[in-house]
Amino acid sequence: MRSKIVAGNWKMNKNLTETEALLTELAAKLPDTQAEVMVAPTYVNLASAVRTLESSVIEVIAQNMHFAESGAYTGEISADMLLSIGVDTAIIGHSERRAYFGETDEILAKKVVTALDKNIRVMFCFGEELEDRKSDNHFNVVESQLKNALFSLEASAWSKIVLAYEPVWAIGTGETASADQAQEMHAFIRKTITEAYDATIANNVSILYGGSVKPGNAGEIFGKPDVDGGLIGGAALVADDFVAIIKAI
Ligand code: PEP
């Protein structure tokens, strides 16, 4: 049985005081849910976020991590550093990392291998650009992103992977994929994993949808059979909106 997950990616938002305030409000308002709830504050506030949420079921996760164990990588954060503050899940491959920081499939494949070696759960993001969808190339793009970064992994590695399908044209734009478009792609992703591995792995991996999910559209998107939750950007920065999205699952 795969998990339902709602995760908030805070990106480069919220200073220390704001982070603590939002986490405290979220913890107080968290509804009863079967879903795993996760938040990804910025690096500098991860350790304090872990402390603030000590007695909450909300999990603190990282927005990124480096593929090297340690060394001369100024500004970067390693798997061991995350583990040392109690963070054992990392988002890898977010479209903003790909677009603004030059993260290629090859780099992402290395990050995934390092994370899994260190027993860090990977929330792997991928998705097509608007031109890919307009030219009807979106299935090919998604298949190659998965293949390049994940399909060399051993079958056993998949128990530590969560997928987040995030069409780039829907991220932060207010434009959401329709629930049917999300379902169509999620079903395609499961079929692709079945072909590369097997149906058990495909059916056990959680596939989240991300891209302008809001309280008003979350219910319809989460209602689709192959959508196991969401990776939420903007709406995760407002406690009442994030809570409403959690309630929708
Ligand atoms: C994201 O950045 O992962 C995201 C889905 O953002 P938004 O919800 O703001 O579109």
Description of the structure:
The protein has helices spanning 16-29, 46-52, 79-84, 95-100, 105-117, 130-134, 138-150, 179-196, 199-204, 215-222, 239-247, and strands at 5-9, 36-40, 59-60, 89-92, 121-126, 161-165, 207-210, 229-232. It is of the alpha/beta class and 249 residues long. The chain has a single domain, classed as Aldolase class I (TIM Barrel, Alpha-Beta Barrel), CATH 3.20.20.70. An eight-stranded parallel β-sheet has the order 3-2-1-8-7-6-5-4. Helix 8 crosses helix 10 and helix 10 (215-222) packs parallel to helix 11 (239-247). The longest helix has 18 residues, at 179-196. The structure holds phosphoenolpyruvate (PEP). Involved in the gluconeogenesis. Catalyzes stereospecifically the conversion of dihydroxyacetone phosphate (DHAP) to D-glyceraldehyde-3-phosphate (G3P). Keywords: Cytoplasm, Gluconeogenesis, Glycolysis, Isomerase.
Can you tag this structure with a few keywords?
11 helices; globular; binds phosphoenolpyruvate; single chain; TIM Barrel; alpha/beta; 8-stranded parallel β-sheet; 14% strand; 249 residues
